[in-house]
Amino acid sequence: MIIITQRTATEEQIEEIVAQLEDLGLAAQVSRGESRVIVGVIGPEELLREKPLASLPGVEAVVPLAKPYKLASADARGHASTVDICGVRIGGDAAVALISGPCSVEGREQMLSIARLVKDSGARILRGGAFKPRTSPYSFQGLREEGLRFLAEARNETGLPILTEIMDARDLPMIERYADCLQIGARNMQNFSLLKEVGRSHLPVLLKRGFSATHNELIMSAEYILNEGNENVLLCERGIRTFETGTRYTLDLSAVPILKSRTHLPVVVDPTHAVGLRAFIPQMSVAAVAAGADAIMLEVHESPETAKSDGQQALFPETLSKLLPRLRAVANAVGRDL
Ligand code: PEP
Ligand code: MN
């Protein structure tokens, strides 16, 4: 951290800044420029947490040099980490994984049937929402525990691990009885008490980027989960809100290399929610694999026109099965299996 002083700072004020740092057990390195003085802070910056240095007389700005995230940082490990979801490895040099299933669990037959189809298409993880974050309280809210039971049945039949969203920390013990991986949705990315709660779970967490969140805000939310002891966090780019209205959100593919350079965490791309229009999702899935995504999440439905949520963006099962060889070819071209 460096402290930049005001041009008008007096010698007494600079001495006071240095004294305050030394009082805390930190060393100060004073550099005198032509018009102002810069004080470098040497030592563990945690010691400054409670000290409002920016409000000391003579201080113009306090500039942190270290990254605000420690556990998620690429430096924390020195290599990309891999998250294991019941034997399906995601991240590092593992094969790119396809996560697929309907937006919502709608019924037993629907879930079993789509689970078989996505498995035949090459998906390695089954998704389905039993608790749905809907904009309107009058829209379908999910089948709750019944939905979890249908998901678990589909897992037992197909062998695919299941991923499902948690919206309320009070549901965690129940969801943990069924699910293999938790999802934190975009709208809850900064629900810090929920993040802390899933940070104490034994299940891996797929953390979706809030649609108005920066890359660093997403990483800081992952830091909350890691800080509670849960090391199995996957970051997920799912589109951000921009001025463009041609798609539901705007898929920020630059997030993939950027998140992978700043953190050691696997990065998943969800082109479905980003694009929001069935016709353009295959192209953006291919692009996401080319950009280095560790997994791709795609919603599918056998009759999207009757889907209880997100029908306009659900792929037909045949589109999914035709897409897989294309994704594999691109993965191979960038040195990955799929
Ligand atoms: C979902 O995965 O169905 C979902 C609601 O996603 P998001 O939180 O990204 O909108
Ligand atoms: Mn959805």
Reconstruct the topology from this structure:
Blueprint: E1 2-5, H1 11-23, E2 27-32, E3 37-42, E4 59-63, H2 74-77, E5 83-85, E6 88-90, E7 97-101, H3 108-121, E8 125-127, H4 145-158, E9 162-165, H5 172-178, E10 181-184, H6 192-199, E11 205-208, H7 215-227, E12 233-237, H8 255-262, E13 267-269, H9 271-275, H10 281-291, E14 295-299, H11 317-333
Parallel strand pairs: 7-8, 7-14, 8-9, 9-10, 10-11, 11-12, 12-13, 13-14
Antiparallel strand pairs: 1-3, 1-4, 2-3, 5-6
Helix pairs in contact: 3-4, 3-11, 6-7, 10-11
Q: How would you describe this protein?
A:
The protein has 338 residues and is α/β, with parallel strands linked by helices. The chain folds into 2 domains: 2-63, Alpha-Beta Plaits (2-Layer Sandwich), CATH 3.30.70; 74-333, TIM Barrel (Alpha-Beta Barrel), CATH 3.20.20.70. The chain is 34% helix and 18% strand. It contains 11 helices and 14 strands. An 8-stranded parallel beta barrel has the order 7-8-9-10-11-12-13-14, surrounded by 7 helices. The chain is elongated and about 75 Å long. The mean pLDDT is 95. The site of phosphoenolpyruvate has 9 residues, from loops.
